[in-house]
Amino acid sequence: xxxxxxxxxxxxxxxxxxxxxxxxxxxxxxxxxxxxxxxxxxxxxxxxxxxxxxxxxxxxxxxxxxxxxxxxxxxxxxxxxxxxxxxxxxxxxxxxxxxxxxxxxxxxxxxxxxxxxxxxxxxxxxxxxxxxxxxxxxxxxxxxxxxxxxxxxxxxxxxxxxxxxxxxxxxxxxxxxxxxxxxxxxxxxxxxxxxxxxxxxxxxxxxxxxxx
Length: 212
Prior knowledge:
11 strands, antioxidant, four-stranded antiparallel beta sheet, oxidoreductase, Glutaredoxin, Antioxidant, Horf6, Chain A, domain 2
């Protein structure tokens, strides 16, 4: 089982989900995707995460991002768990949860924790671009819930930097200044970034967010 790395092609699959049998690539279409895994149904941290993901769906929709979750339990179990999520988190789960009982998808995405038991998926996040390449991988311990504000921030950065010759600095949020690519000479950068280029050091140039 090969380890997925940034820039690798995200493996395609067809799987039973809480919303029927779906093909991953067909589900994503030409948009972005987030695939995130959970160790098991009816687990406390994951219950809060799936509820939060449902509440964030509108923000991800604005960014043309579709979510898909995964657990190694079955579809019937997922449907019962979704009832609990909706009740306790005061929301409606509005994205599919993969029923990965045969661990096919978990193995494709290297989600089985080598230091745990042989079915416990680690809590991984994969952000996948329209080109079906893996753009980001995050792995959390079971005790720490994921930060969906950070996932939105990363998507904003990935989408911005995919279309403009910039990078985003530490703690960047949409609308804040961005870093000019080091490959672009300052004089050329001034012609590209018409809102202005601030040279702090020859290698550190800032410009206003070109999308703001």
